[in-house]
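Q: Convert this sequence to structure tokens.
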Amino acid sequence: MNTTENLCLVTAQAEFTDAALAELQALDPSLSMEEEIAPGILLCRAQDAARFMAIASQTHPTFTRHIAPVQTIVPLENSENDLGEIALAIVQLPGFAQLERGVHFAVQTRLIQTDKSKGERAYSGGQINKALAEALAEETAAIEDVKKPQVVISLLATMDKGYLGISTVEENLSAWPGGARHYAQTDEQISRAEFKLLEALEVFGVILPTQGKALDLGAAPGGWTRLLLDEGLEVVAVDPAKLDPRLVGRQGLEHYRGYAEDYLEDAVQRRQHYDLIVNDMRMDAREAARLISKAAACLDPEEGLMISVFKLPHATLAVDPFVNLKEALNILKRSYAVVQAHQLFHNRQEVTVVAAQPLPQARAQQHSSRPSQTRNQPPQRAAAFQSRGPRARPAHTRGPQQRMFQPRGPQPAGNERDRGPQLGRPFRPGGPQPTRTEQSGGPRRPRTFQPRGTQPTGNERARGPQSRPYQPRGPQQRRPYQSGPPRPERHEH
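A:
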């Protein structure tokens, strides 16, 4: 057994590992990369790994999905004997004392096939998890809980090495192995883009109201619209394209067959109000930020919430996608008091952003501005849109409770693919609160938004996702990205 000190594993999207490392080095300049074990998985060293992980858990970096301590490295032979060696190594780890009677724990194993010439694995990740969990539960009287663990035993196994560590869920940034959150497909599912919204609700601690009105920009084919309708919200779906036939006739749905810019111009002038605005249009992040900033006038100043996906261009010698992201976030911060961004497991070349508490000056500016000429005549609407004009919003549209802004806990944990908890409090032996049901047709409860701590407001400059000059990877050059007038919405719903 090889004893290590101050090592940790950092997991991010493979194309964004440079950005993840840079944002972590801004938190702790002593952090350095020792080895890239696999695409998106970095072995790093810090002067004080425990302190570094504590800082990262409080700041919630944008591109880093998961951090796990490496407290020992176990040689592996790719045989059944490996399980015994791993079990003995776990008992000697410094964090083993956390496994006390009544503590909820989980074993999370990731297998990396680095050398196929050595043949197939002698065991699966599930077999390792089961065998180790049974032995640890018998030895410590701790409770195995794959859905809501408080302590996690992390194992990353290559063909010849096992990287082991014990930590709390909060220190890992995500309660899922490597930050990989999976959902089960259902018959009602319209598109895989639904997983992005489901994951965003978990990661950012968003709890939707059981009633109210939502605006879905770039809605077709209607995946996000379906989820919002299932939560009991009335939805205005904005898109020139048709929605999925299964949505036709759904109660509470209005389909505006036109462009988002045109709809918002009308909605702002008529002082329309929404509890939630979502956007997954395929457009430049800065253009999306300007569009969402305009929509701030349609949100309640205290309870209004926005969820948007920001698309990023691929990195080239001439294009830095992180500059685009920083500019987009700065645009949002001029209109919203709370702005948070994170690259989800289901995000590809993009990040997901949540904004809340529209600033009064932004709302006043939008309401006082004259309507601009639309760029073209929108297509005919599927259903006639009737504005209600300026009015006081009925109390019942605000949902049953006020949205609070408190630091969030980490995401759900466990090996089940279709469920997971929402953890929003520090480690306690008593166990975290139960999760919401994700299967359609399950019970529904009131929801609020609990963001991840204090964020800069107003015109403060954002620190951005990295603190070092951008260094592109790879010699090839691609056509530079050129921002221009907004194109008709293309969507990923």
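Residues 370-448, 453-488 have pLDDT under 50 and may be disordered.
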